Amino acid sequence: MTHMEIKALENASRAAVWTEGYDGQTHYGDVLKALTPALFILATATVLMLVIL
Question: Is residue 7 over pLDDT 50?
């Protein structure tokens, strides 16, 4: 495979990702669902540190 073919495949895959995934809206619900486990872990760690004090 030549350098030009590799470059063309990389550019094609990047374009496909952006055009398929972008719909022009901000999905706050999805962001909150993604952050929930991290927020739970941080809250638990905070409570445990306060108990230790």
Answer: yes
